[in-house]
Design goal:
Blueprint: H1 2-15, H2 21-34, H3 48-60, H4 64-71, H5 75-78, H6 83-90, H7 92-106, H8 113-129, H9 131-146, H10 153-173, H11 177-191, H12 193-205, H13 207-227, E1 232-238, H14 241-251, E2 262-268, H15 271-284, E3 286-287, E4 293-294, E5 307-312, E6 318-325, H16 326-334, H17 355-365, H18 369-380, E7 384-388, E8 394-398, H19 403-410, H20 412-416, E9 418-423, E10 426-428, E11 440-444, H21 455-458, H22 462-474, H23 476-494, H24 508-515, H25 520-529, H26 534-558, E12 579-581, E13 589-591, E14 603-607, E15 613-617, E16 635-640, E17 648-657, H27 662-672, E18 677-685, E19 689-698, H28 701-712, E20 717-722
Parallel strand pairs: 2-6, 13-15
Antiparallel strand pairs: 1-2, 3-5, 4-5, 5-6, 7-8, 9-10, 9-11, 12-16, 14-15, 14-16, 17-19, 17-20, 18-19
Helix pairs in contact: 1-3, 2-4, 3-4, 3-9, 4-7, 6-7, 7-8, 7-9, 8-9, 8-18, 10-11, 11-12, 12-14, 13-15, 15-27, 17-18, 19-22, 22-23, 23-25, 23-26, 24-26
Bound molecules: manganese (II) ion.
Residues 49, 73-74, 140 line the site of manganese (II) ion.
Length: 725
Amino acid sequence: METHYQSMHAAIVKHLPNADMELIDRAVDYARNKHRDQKRKDGSPYIIHPLAVAEIVVEMGLDTDAVLGALLHDCIEDTDASHEEIEKLFGASVAELVEGVTKLTRANFSSSEQEQMENLRKMFMAMSKDIRVVLIKIADRLHNMRTMQYQTPEKQISKCRETMDIYAPLAHRLGMQKIKWELEDIALRYLDPDDYNRITAYLNAHKEQDEAFMRTIQDKIKERLTAVGIHNTTYGRIKHVYSIYRKMQVQDKSIEELYDIYAFRVIVDTIPDCYNVLGHIHDLFNLVPGRFKDYISTPKPNMYQSLHTTVIGSQGIPFEVQIRTWDMHETAEYGIAAHWKYKQGTGAGSEKDFEWIRRLLESQQDSDAEEYVQSLKIDMFDDEVFVFTPKGRIVSLPAGSTPIDFAYAIHSGVGNAMIGAKVNNRIANIDTPLKNGDIVEVLTSKAAKGPSRDWLNICKSNQARTKIKQWFKKEKREENVAHGRAAFESEMRRVGLPLSITIDPEVSPQLLKKLSFDDWEDMYAAIGYGGLTAVKAVGRIRDDINKAVRAQANDKLMQSAPQRQEPDLRRDRHAINGVIVEDIDSCMIKFAKCCAPVPGDAIVGFITKGFGVSIHRCDCPNAAHRDDPIQAARWVRVRWANEEDQPFETTLELDCITRDGLLLDVASTLTTARVRMKELFGKDLPGGKSVFTVKFEVKNAEELETIRKKLLNIRDVVGSRRGQN
Ligand code: MN
């Protein structure tokens, strides 16, 4: 008891130096007296528990009322203390807190689904009145988890399940990372002891090795930052056990095969320093593309802010680096509670910082209880995404899932026949990540060619991946046709024959007859199977083709070619992703990655095999040979529809003269221009030059031009060009 009291006392001196210690001591005495006949499961006096909970609450940074509430939190539930008595002795606000915690304690979250819903609702109601109630409850749960070894095995399992289902996600949504990690790790220890022990044993066995690795990286970062005069605190850590466990499950790997278990943190004084550090990290190590995330300009819903990037050290081991200021660090560790350190406010005041709480409370007013609680639950689980069919059925998918995952979740037939998708009634790319509450409609066609191989890389759910693979196994034909066609075409080119002849209606039937096939696809498939070689096939029709080509040349001399009619593109066509394709009303649209067109660019479409029409800029090198008779039939006229203003990703490469702070200038120019930046990194070239690659979203070519000019205005940025996405 004494040590627990001293420990709490020390925490108060450190975090709440102005607290009324006399009042707190009175609450300690009151609680000790009320609980005097009770013992904890391990036989120790009960008062140890409220003291420990109060200490956690102090460390969260909460105020004196919350500390008093924590000390008294079990009094109404477990002793003869009453609301009135507590109100008389410690004030109305403390009594309200204790009352609120008591209500939550009575809620049993491991009960039936329906009761659980009802209890969750109580939790959020309490939160809406005064969030400190929920924070005290989380502190209470944390201490109970820390002392879980004294409980019966049944109780351990049910409490740990409840912690995983309710408290850890709640701590996460409140931004309390540190507490979330501890809750998860303890819960895992009881829920899956084998795996928990295996992971911790492995980590212990590799402790020295890990620490040596982390020290090398840490020293390297520190050395550079100190050399350029950036004041920093840098350290490495191993990710927490439960997150390693999750990675093993998701990636289906053993811990030995798992690489990204290290995370480094660089904490600096100012936001400009953050971007500056980012530049130095990218200079020191090799960047893993696509992993840079700027949560500073776009904070997470739980207010988390940091720059994240993944790089590879000299040992070939990838690791994540998180860069943040001290303020951001506090918020990341303690979440909503961190705000008491700055504003000693009531619970209600801090709500407006938390957009999601506000939204939930608003939605509460105009929906019935069940629907409301459903939406709460949806918002609490962020490794899943819940979407709806047009008829209102809920489909749960892994976070990051796309319309492809959705289609295969409905039925493999739907996935295989998919040609596009609508999200919330608008045509969407089939690789668009779905958000909670999206209404998804799959557009299918009997003529669909089935899934594309790319889909395997796009989809997030194992279900979709398995079904797509099955399709390819069964329908190898598509693949064989593609392979066969490629072999055939390259052989035709090798011997100098025009490919266009195969689609010439006059000549084609005669050639097929000679080859003994009904159509070209069958012939390609046969080559793909290996039933016929491309050399043999071309050899068989070579003479006929040469004859036909000569005949056609003669015809051309005899008559002048008729003027080709320009088709009218002004007709009201159906726009797909902001693009109108001539003569095709519904097809998949992809924006070519090589030139990443944005509205306003002159564009042209290419009919791909199995992936609809891909849109290129007219000046794209890949579109340069579109008049070539070999390709001509597959190029189609397209134009931008005017009404769309959805953002497009584009990439600029900036030629620069290397100097410190340039990366920061680029980043802040984009931030000031309110541009959503997706990626930014620099590469040093010989002779004091460097190239910065920046990927961001724009609405159209006009906006892109404005941004390009702004970037060129930065000192030492000397040139720019459009890059590849
Ligand atoms: Mn308790």
